[in-house]
User: Which sequence fits this backbone?
């Protein structure tokens, strides 16, 4: 899927410099950033889900421990 991404001038310049330093394209850096974000948020969602399940499972005990 194609899309347009509008960056501020300072973001574009920083991205360009980083790409030159790493010897990769700006596109490659942005793809890596998206992949990192998706992996991190997927893990956070799993942790939240597990926490909610355990909170529900142990609600009575947690209430008694207050």
Assistant:
């Amino acid at each position: 899927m194609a899309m347009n991404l509008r960056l501020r001038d300072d973001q574009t310049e920083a991205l360009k410099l980083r790409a030159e330093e790493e010897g990769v394209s700006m596109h490659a850096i942005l793809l890596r950033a998206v992949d990192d974000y998706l992996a991190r948020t997927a893990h956070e969602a799993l942790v939240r889900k597990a926490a909610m399940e355990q909170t529900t499972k142990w609600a009575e005990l947690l209430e008694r421990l207050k």
Notes: The chain is about 80% helix and 0% strand.
